Amino acid sequence: MASITKKKVGRGLYYYARECKRVNGKPKVVWQKYLGRAEDILAAVTASRDAAPVAHALQGEAMVTEFGAVAALYDLCVRLQIAATIDRLVPKRGDGPSVGTYLQVASINRCVAPCSKARIGDWFEGTALRRLVPISRPQLTSQRFWDNMDRVSSEAICAIEAEVTQRAVQEFGLDLSRVFFDATNFFTFIDTFNARCDLARRGKSKEGRAALRIVGVALLVTADFHVPLLHQTYPGNQTDCPTFASLTEQVVERCRRLVAETEHVTIVFDKGNNSQDNLDAVAATRYHFIGSLVPTQHTDLLAVPCTQFRSLAEDGLPGVSAYRTRKTVFGRDRTVLVTYNENLFVSQSKTLLREISKRQQQFGELAARLRKWHTGEQRGGRPPTADGIRSKVAAWLGARHMRDLFVVTVTEQNGLPALDYHFDQPAWERLQAQLLGKTILFTDNDTWSDAQIVTGYRAQHHIESGFRQMKDPHCIALRPQRHWTDQKVRVHVFTCVLALMLLSLLRRTLHTAGIRVSIPRMVELLGGIQEVTLLFPPAPGTDTPIARTSVTRMSPEQKGIYRVLDLQRYRSS
In tens digits, what is the pLDDT along the chain, a chain of 573 residues? Predict the structure, then answer.
């Protein structure tokens, strides 16, 4: 039997491990090993315990969970009090997770890994949210989501959005001197004969999906990192102008609540929202506006020679020139700015030249086929008719400006149609000189400089960026909606708008700290910060496994984000 014994050598005590046996009836040391002094033994034992997980790693299990992105987004939800606000405005009776908990989980999911409600439970279990949010995997079924979404009315959505956006403005000090309004639509896969959804209608799909029912979404966002301030879901066959008209009162009211301390607020919108009623409604408020006009409706402005345009290069707008005047627009005298942009001119010219080349090839091939019928080279099959050829020509000339650039004549000779066409070079030169590269802006900001008006309108790309983000299939992904009733569609859109708000605020926070990344790149970097938990067999005499948790190795960029967002607070203890 092995034992430990000590020996005193001088003033020190030294320890040995040894084993004794009886040999010929007498005890004898058969094995001995020097262990060292007491402090040497203690250091060796401590090091051995610390190294135990490594030594037994192959015998244990490793669990990797999403941490960086979900922790950062959860922190924003807490700061904005999203779940608490929803629970106060949409109270729930009985036990179980609250409505706010379900919508908060759904919004975070849209940010990082958008999926169906049936799959959220599996995603949730693989994230750090499982220990941050009071909900369990069995409670995250699609039916439970739908039951809780049922409780959220349109009125509740408006009230929740108003409170959350106001808190975001106050918490982050958002700049509301310029806000942008626009609308778009999203195609759906809702069945044609589904009568439970009036929002999904057939209309002009902005993504070219004419065969599908579409749902419209209008947004009011800040110029400060396109943070949404207001949204509305509307029928897909409704055009932008009546949408803005129906929302004008809400837009004004939302601005009134949010910008009490902002003296000058400018609402920016495009020409699709122009109407007498809309402009009158904005004029009746203390807010200002910048809009655009349909150029072809103001031929007098397009005819102004380029010699009267002033270059804005010295104002930080190279390649841009402007002509400023005043004109009565929608019954009111307004400042009007005709701008010419060299880059826009080149881009529009290239697009039209491609279309012109395509039409020339189509007309040439059609004229050649018709000549074969006239010469008798083509005999079999059904002969063409003049009406059929005119319909085909009308379709080809339906593209923008094609009817102005081609002169096409369809005649009938000996019972067969004949085609004569030519490209109108003078019309092309007039189009280049008068229209291409030009934009007509109008505003009531009479004291603003030309450059201020141009940059103010150009900043509309913020809302376009927001819409593109909502159509990103990997982040937010408003479509596919996987909901088939108006009420569910409205709640789904609301969670996507909340997701856009969270991502925009998160990106703004990083940008303020000097970390300039796009939303997709930000999500990618945060998604790479994961928790790794090593589980080992329980210690002798216990039933609890030994756990050691750490985060994956981070790049310098990830370390910067981790530090700025202080994600250490949400690490597993």
Answer: 556 667 766 666 666 666 666 666 666 665 566 566 666 666 655 554 454 444 444 455 777 889 999 999 999 999 999 999 999 999 987 788 999 999 999 999 999 999 999 999 999 999 999 999 999 999 999 999 999 999 999 999 999 999 999 999 999 999 888 888 888 889 899 888 888 888 989 888 888 888 899 998 989 899 888 899 999 998 888 877 677 766 777 777 777 777 765 668 888 988 888 888 788 888 887 889 999 999 989 999 999 998 999 999 999 999 999 999 999 999 899 999 999 999 999 999 999 999 999 999 999 999 999 999 888 888 778 889 999 999 999 999 998 899 999 999 999 988 889 999 999 999 999 999 999 999 999 999 999 999 999 999 988 887 888 888 898 888 898 888 888 899 999 999 999 999 999 999 999 999 999 999 999 999 999 999 998 887 777 777 777 777 778 888 899 999 999 999 999 999 876
417 vs 566: CA distance, rounded Å: 76
Tokens 């700025």 map to which residue?
564
Structure-token match 């349909």, residue found: 294
Assign 3-class secondary structure to 501-550.
HHHHHHHHHHHHCCCCCCHHHHHHHHHCCEEEEEEECCCCCCCCCEEEEE
- Specify the long-range contacts of residues 190-198, CB closer than 8 Å, at least 24 apart: 190/481, 190/484, 191/484, 194/484, 196/484, 196/485, 196/486, 197/484, 197/485, 197/486, 197/489, 198/235, 198/486
The answer to whether the beta carbons of residues 165 and 228 sit under 8 Å apart is: yes
Domain segments of the chain as ranges: 2-50, 294-322+335-445
* Residue 119 amino acid letter: R
Integer Cα distance of 446 and 288 in angstroms: 10
pTM: 0.80
* 8 Å CB contact between 177 and 242: no
Give the integer Cα–Cα distance in Å for 15 and 38.
7
The phi, psi pair for 322, rounded to 5°, reads -145, 150
Give the whole-angstrom CA distance, residue 460 versus residue 226: 9
Asked, as a colleague might, if the bond just before 91 is cis with ω within 30 of 0, I would say no
DSSP string computed for 195-230: TT-SS-B----TTS-TTS-EEEEEEEEETTTT-EEE
